[in-house]
Specification:
Layout: H1 4-15, E1 18-24, E2 28-31, H2 38-41, H3 55-63, H4 69-79, H5 83-99, H6 103-108, E3 112-115, E4 130-136, E5 139-147, E6 154-164, E7 180-181, E8 183-190, E9 196-201, H7 203-219, H8 226-239, H9 245-249, H10 251-256, H11 261-282
Length: 285
């Protein structure tokens, strides 16, 4: 079993090292977080006095290991009565702790985005502007996104919940929400290096982009080989840019984008195939 500190650090790696850009047809949500958001996502707001173990103090207590898995149970048993309520609180907290490690998968696989309208769920205490929902085998992950006061289009994570297949109200948080947005792609940006990468792209968006690449190559009199198209699509996703033919010809610029050996290998593979097609074009008829 992971410790609270391990869960906190793993979550920080996903949510705080990177920013995420969630693209829909109508808008782009810029998701950014600091470590002070994490204790709330872990369920620490249910321990002790209201809000005692969230924010800066919650971060401090977790980092110094003043609060641990063992103390979570002790605090619940101290502050909640009777035993049935203790059981429900512990179950809710452990659902968060057991599944928050899947946030990375939530961003990189198919999820649904809902506009969260409070009047549609009057019985809910949920206070978010958008709800990201990911169905993962026998459970559903719910991530609440709330508007930031720092700028338009910027959001923070402010809630995380999990329901299971056998829960009677497994879809309670989103079943009455009428406004759903199809996510076209999610871009992850490293805060330190500003390196951007497409980590999720819908099948429809991929098909549109492949069609555009095929037309671009045809205009340049390059045969639209499917493997070459896939490699160009991978380059577009890896560097979050639509490469034109002139950009693809520039060896120095392409390699200059690489930040690790895997990216260098991808560019190597592309130029091997690119040069083969270029030679085919240049052969005399």
């Amino acid at each position: 079993m992971k410790t609270l500190l391990q869960i906190f650090l793993d979550t920080k790696e996903v949510l705080c090292r990177y920013d995420y850009y969630i693209h829909t047809q109508k808008r782009i949500l810029h998701l950014t977080n600091s470590e002070t958001k994490i204790p709330h996502l872990m369920g620490m707001q249910y321990l002790g006095k209201p809000g005692q173990f969230t924010g800066d103090y919650g971060v401090y207590m977790i980092k110094k290991q003043r609060i641990t898995m063992e103390s979570v149970e002790k605090l619940v048993r101290k502050y909640y009565k009777p035993e049935e309520k203790q059981r429900r609180m512990l179950e809710m907290i452990h659902r968060k702790l057991d599944n928050i490690g899947e946030l990375g998968e939530m961003f990189s696989l198919y999820s649904k985005l809902y506009l969260y309208e409070k009047e549609q769920n009057k019985d809910s205490e949920f206070q978010s502007d958008y709800l990201l929902v990911h169905e993962n085998r026998k459970k559903i992950l719910h991530l609440g996104l709330v508007k930031s006061e720092s700028g338009k289009g910027i959001y923070h994570c402010n809630s995380f919940m999990t329901t299971y297949e056998n829960d009677r109200d497994r879809d309670f948080f989103f079943r009455d929400l009428p406004h759903r947005y199809e996510i076209r792609k999610i871009v992850r940006e490293n805060k330190a290096t500003e390196h951007k990468e497409v980590i999720y792209q819908s099948m429809e968006a991929q098909m549109r982009e492949k069609s555009g690449i095929e037309k671009m190559l045809a205009t340049a009199d390059i045969q639209a080989d499917q493997k070459l198209i896939r490699l160009i699509l991978q380059l577009n996703q890896k560097f979050d840019i639509y490469h034109t033919v002139d950009m693809l010809k520039d060896h120095k610029a392409m390699y200059g984008k690489c930040s690790d050996q895997r990216e260098i290998k991808l560019v190597d593979d592309f130029f091997v195939m690119w040069d083969e097609h270029k030679e085919d074009i240049q052969k005399p008829t």
